[in-house]
Design goal:
The chain has about 160 residues and is of the alpha+beta class. Helices cover about 20% and strands about 30% of the residues. Strand 3 and strand 4 form a beta hairpin.
């Protein structure tokens, strides 16, 4: 085989390998709302499965239980959050911008547990006395007490 052809083939294979590696490090843009999405489980707690999706600069974080049942999800960008209408306990998700959509007289039956944390976002889960679960999403403080929008946007995973 000609040495020039070998070099072209080698360069082609290397570029495919590099692009595949880069793609593997990028969170998927589809699968939100699925019980077992084709995404890495990034949970900080063995009692939950957490999946991250990114689309259009917005990070979507979905929390599932160990059976794959979707419990709730939030979208976040630049320190701002929105509760997504997916999951068994979507009405009980709280964010810095919005309280839970439903009120309950149930009380916490255990301390909140961190289920997800990255450089900009923390999500905790609190079991309630009625068997429900409350998810709380918050921005990670960058020293000034809030998440600077420029800093947060540069660290979306």
């Amino acid at each position: 085989m000609n040495i020039t052809i070998r070099r072209v083939l080698l360069a082609s294979m290397l570029s495919l390998g590099v692009s595949a590696t880069a793609f593997a490090g990028t969170p998927p843009a589809t699968g939100l709302g699925q019980a077992w999405p084709n995404a890495a489980d990034v949970s900080a707690n063995p009692n939950f499965h957490v999946y991250v999706f990114v689309l259009g600069g917005v990070k979507y974080v979905q929390v599932n239980d160990t059976n794959g049942d979707v419990l709730g999800a939030v979208g976040t960008a630049g320190g701002q959050f929105i509760t997504l209408p997916v999951g068994q306990f979507a009405q009980l998700v709280t964010t810095p911008q919005d309280p839970a959509a439903a009120t309950t007289t149930a009380t916490p039956s255990a301390a909140p547990a961190v289920v997800y944390q990255d450089s900009t976002t923390t999500i905790t889960a609190t079991p309630l006395s009625n068997g429900a679960l409350q998810l709380n999403a918050a921005a990670v403080s960058t020293g000034g007490g809030t998440c600077d929008p420029i800093e947060c946007n540069n660290h979306l995973q």
